[in-house]
Specification:
The chain is built from three helices and two strands; from the N terminus they run ββααα. The chain has 73 residues and is of the alpha+beta class. The protein has a two-stranded antiparallel ribbon with strand order 1-2. The model has no long low-confidence stretch (mean pLDDT 81).
Length: 73
Amino acid sequence: MARAQRRGERATGGPRRPVDLTVFDEPDRVPRHRLRVDARLGGLEVLRQPQAANPPYLTGAQFAALRDHLPPR
């Protein structure tokens, strides 16, 4: 598992927010087709509007369903 940390820049004078982002190695990533066939995830914003702004929104139920597809920690 790769880990990256980025810090926001203050170019606009806005607040800085540290981000701790975990990116799974390729074999552990959840393929799109597995998300599409899970009825609990059919309404995912990232599937309905793939060109929408980031970050995509998840409901609590969608987040729980998505976690079922992730590798154990």
